[in-house]
Known about the structure:
Layout: E1 4-10, H1 20-30, E2 36-42, H2 48-58, E3 63-68, H3 70-80, E4 86-91, H4 97-102, H5 108-117, E5 120-128, E6 131-133, E7 136-140, H6 141-151, H7 158-171, E8 176-180, E9 183-187, E10 189-193, E11 215-220, H8 228-236, E12 246-251, E13 253-257, E14 262-266, E15 269-273, E16 277-290
Parallel strand pairs: 1-2, 1-3, 3-4
Antiparallel strand pairs: 5-6, 5-16, 7-10, 7-14, 8-9, 8-13, 10-11, 11-12, 13-16, 14-15
Amino acid sequence: MNKQEVWFIINPISGTKNNINALTDYIAKYISLERYNYSLKFTEYKNHAYDIANKAVELSVDIIVAVGGDGTINEIAKALIGHSIILGIIPVGSGNGLAKHLGISLDVKLAIEGLNKQRLEKLDVGYINDLPFLTASGIGFDAHCAKIFNEKKHNRGIWNFIRIVTYEYCFNYKDIECDFLGLKNKFFRITFCNVSKVGNNLYLAPDALSNDGLLDCIAVKPYPFLMLRRILGNIFGKKIKQSSHTSLLRAAEFDVHIDSDTSIHCDGEIYILNKPIIQVRIKPSALTVIA
């Protein structure tokens, strides 16, 4: 059997706490050398994972394994869309939403053993304008908090996330105003999901599937402060439902009209959009991933 060529693209600063030497030792110890020839590549700057993955595409590498969080996976996936290269994942980020959705173990040894078994699955890719996302994208409160959370490079984790959400909701956040579904209204957040849950075990769209050719949209109108605790409980408890404040929608495309520049997040990474129309689309079965 011809061995497959595998590149591990490792983000050395991903997650809350990672020992790079331990990671590379695990790879050397548990990767199947009967099946694979492997190389280790380390990122050194933002979007370096994308550059490395592009080089792998040029060289027709068989498999690229993202060793990092959802942001690292997103960078690599951008280079793989439309190509036959398989995406593998060793989740060592702070959230690891895609890995959790796909059932990939957060234990490094077990994740590597999963790579050896190579169970393949097709994955849809969402687009918000020309920006691809694998887990979720959105505007409003999600993007506002993601920006602040990303600035806490050395102070992440679920409790810091809850602290940021509570503080920003109480003191800093202002609802967005836009035209969505033909109605101009204020929204707390509008989120488009390709998976059931995102980082920190947030079930933003409990029924979303990553291979059905559709996106799940959650549009939330402003709600009273006293409902915050219940809203958080519903998100962590997989209980988001249709209500007077929440609309649950499923479609292959959505349009949002907004007058001012706005922040969006794609798989937790922040971008500024200065276009009056936000177009959200799905590209079915755009990636092959080891699940």
